[in-house]
Amino acid sequence: APACVLLLAGSLNCVEWSLLPPVTEEMVVQAEQLKGRFQGDPSFEYEYTEINAEDDERFFEDGQEPVIKEEARLVATIEQIDRAVGIVPRGALVKTPLGFVHENRSFEGLSWMEAKKLSSYFHFTEPVILKNKTLLEKADLDPSIDFLDSLEHDIPQGKGS
User: Fold this and answer.
1) Residue 1's pLDDT is what?
2) Which residues form the signal peptide (predicted)?
3) Residue 118: enclosing H or E segment and its boundaries?
């Protein structure tokens, strides 16, 4: 999939703005451990009160109690939301035989019938499910446009599921 860079800015007074730090996978892992509301202070430090034995080694390597600043939690949360909701219509992007991904200049949108199907949309992230499919399952796919994970097998999480 094409690489996208999302620049995030933050402000305490809505007048002076500064770029937030780029997200790392470590930030995402740490932020997943936290629950509850944001405090509204980018420098606020959350302490981990409950860490399982597996995480214990990773978080306590430097001998200090692990903390994560609200600023890092914010960019990690935005990254998680972006991963979950970023989608692209089938055919809007094409992949060349050499692996380059480009916008499909001849794409004019989905037909009314296609637009109503979940299988007509892909997650705009590195594929996971597609990589685990067998060759037989991939036989009917077009490798130039079916190179991302389809939404058709997504199961909504949360209330009512």
Assistant:
1) 40
2) 1-17
3) none
